[in-house]
């Protein structure tokens, strides 16, 4: 092989290597939608895990992300309502039963207010609904602060889960709204 053909081959290989290198790095510069959103939540790792492990999500699609979170909010709230319904009917204490009944209605309102809020494209209004949902969930939790009524463990866990999911939905709205300002 002559030196000019060796030089040409080396030049072609180095050019192809540089092309591949720059093509792959430009893909990473774009950023990761899930990381952009989850890094702003109160539990970034958990947020990332939720969104990356859901097989129904296209990870670069904001609508898929918001729909997945709303679906999880609906599922968590539905499970809590089922548990509360059972607890209400087993509870002998009137005050405890009244508190559980209030929370039962609270979780229905969360589902009603949140579902589809991001789908209408009014992300600012969706944030108002999220604030409302967070407030009524915290009001439910606060009803159990006074002794001797302890908040049932399933309700405490569900409250934390739903508040975290609402925080993720809040950051999705912020992400979209920030993009609209550009």
Descriptive report:
The chain has 182 residues and is mainly alpha-helical. The protein folds into 2 domains: 1-30; 31-181, Butyryl-CoA Dehydrogenase, subunit A, domain 3. It contains 7 helices and no strands. Helix 4 packs antiparallel against helix 7 (153-181) and helix 6 (123-142) packs antiparallel against helix 7 (153-181). The longest helix has 29 residues, at 62-90.
Please sum up the structure shown:
With 182 residues, the protein is mostly helical.
Give the CATH level 1 class of the largest domain: Mainly Alpha
Helix and strand pattern? HHHHHHH
Which outline best applies?
elongated
User: Within the CATH hierarchy, at the fold level, what is the topology of the largest domain?
Assistant: Butyryl-CoA Dehydrogenase, subunit A, domain 3
Q: Helical content, roughly? A: over 70%
The domain count comes to 2
Structural class: mainly alpha
By CATH's scheme, which homologous superfamily of the largest domain applies?
Invertase/pectin methylesterase inhibitor family protein
Which stretches of 5+ consecutive residues score pLDDT under 50? 5-30
Strand content: under 5%
Second-tier CATH architecture of the largest domain: Up-down Bundle
Number of strands: 0
Distance between the terminal alpha carbons, to the nearest Å? Answer: 56 Å
Please describe the biggest sheet, giving its number of strands, its sense, and whether it closes into a barrel.
none
């Amino acid at each position: 092989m002559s030196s000019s053909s060796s030089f040409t081959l080396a030049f072609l290989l180095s050019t192809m290597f540089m092309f591949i290198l720059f093509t792959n790095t430009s893909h990473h510069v774009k950023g990761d939608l899930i990381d952009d959103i989850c890094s702003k939540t109160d539990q970034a790792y958990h947020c990332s895990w939720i969104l990356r492990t859901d097989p129904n999500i296209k990870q670069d699609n904001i609508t898929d992300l918001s729909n997945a979170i709303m679906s999880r909010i609906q599922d968590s709230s539905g499970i809590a309502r089922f548990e509360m319904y059972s607890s209400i009917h087993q509870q002998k204490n009137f005050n405890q039963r009244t508190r559980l009944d209030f929370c039962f209605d609270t979780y229905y309102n969360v589902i009603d207010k949140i579902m589809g809020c991001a789908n209408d494209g009014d992300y600012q209004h969706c944030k108002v609904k999220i604030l409302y949902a967070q407030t009524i969930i915290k009001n439910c939790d606060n009803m159990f602060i006074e002794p001797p009524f302890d908040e049932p463990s399933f309700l405490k866990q569900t409250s934390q889960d739903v508040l975290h999911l609402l925080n993720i939905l809040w950051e999705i709205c912020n992400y979209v709204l920030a993009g609209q300002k550009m």
